[in-house]
Amino acid sequence: MRTRVFVFFNFSPRPWADITRLFEEVGCYDMAAAGPNFLEFYSVMFDEDDPRLSRLRAALSNEGIDRLERREHIYTKSELQAPPLLWLTLRTAERGRLSPRYGTEYDLSAACPLCGTGAIQTSPLLLNPSEIPKKGDIFQIMDHEKLVSLELARALSEAGISGLELRVAQAYKAKVDLPWVQLLAHEQLPPMAPSSKGILREKSCHLCRRDGYFNDAYEPTEIHYKTSELDINKIPDAVYTYEYFDRSRLREPLTDSYFAQPLLLVKPKIFKVLQQQKVRGLVFQPVKIITGDQ
Q1: Which of 38, 110, 136, 252 has the most beta carbons within 10 angstroms of its beta carbon?
Q2: From the CB of residue 13, how many other CB atoms can be counted at a distance below 10 Å?
């Protein structure tokens, strides 16, 4: 594993000559050659052990320029094959609207009556065909519901993946099937261990306390579970977290609602299928199973 650091800073109102000098002194010659950014907001990415990172930090401090940093862990393929559970996310941008927007139906009987967290989707996911990709292997809509191509859905089905429902999405007006299949897990894990890192909780629903979780923008997320609370051998290949990320809002009409989503965790069987299919834009992060005294 290596750690990648993103550094963000704003040079305004300094002249471009000063910016060029700083980049060249640090060793970021490609940034100096790229020319000025009309927004005057810059981001630079380094591995944590890159000597240019410490030089840039020092140069910005000497110039009195504030900076923000974000860190993320980068894992090798062998490091991702070893853990019993992985967190699956996408690097691609969200497409389409929030899932209730076009009339997707939900069962609210077991959901929080105040915020709607825990609503169960009962119909196909209804989408506007003009807002979603025409081709590709996988994408996600704005509330992070993930959809795969028919070909990839077929590969997952043939692999005998457990705990993963493959539900064909539909066009919201004609109610005809689209060439995209939603990934749905139905089993949820117990709460994460307190030792988990890079997860914030803000303004969660005061009634259910299930939503309001966020990934920290500056600290890499590390998900931990205690062996005393999770038997990895007894869960299916695809599961959701107990925690719901973002904040839910239950509105009338339901199409104005937004439901926070749990994270999708998968076992190595799903990782293997997606690797074999050479799906691009995926990000996997190991989930750590710890003993109670860690």
Answers
A1: 136
A2: 6
Q: Would you state the pLDDT for residue 294?
A: 56
Query: For residue 2, how many other CB atoms are within 10 A of its CB?
Result: 11
Give the span between the Cα atoms of 51 and 26, in whole angstroms: 9
Check residue 222 and report its DSSP letter.
B
Outline where DSSP puts E strands in the chain: 2-10, 41-47, 67-74, 86-90, 106-107, 120-121, 126-127, 138-140, 146-149, 164-171, 177-185, 199-201, 213-215, 223-226, 238-245, 261-266, 282-290
Q: What is the pLDDT of residues 222-240, one digit of tens each?
A: 999 999 999 999 999 999 9
Residue 178 near residue 130 (C-beta atoms within 8 A): no
> How are beta strands 67-74 and 2-10 bridged, if at all?
antiparallel
Name the burial class of residue 77, with classes exposed (0-12), middle (13-18) and buried (19+) by CB atoms within 10 angstroms of its CB: exposed
Q: Which of 92, 189, 98, 188 is nearest to 148 (CA)?
A: 92
Q: For residue range 134-160, what is the model confidence (pLDDT) as tens digits? A: 999 999 999 899 999 999 999 999 999
Residue 46 is predicted with a pLDDT of: 92
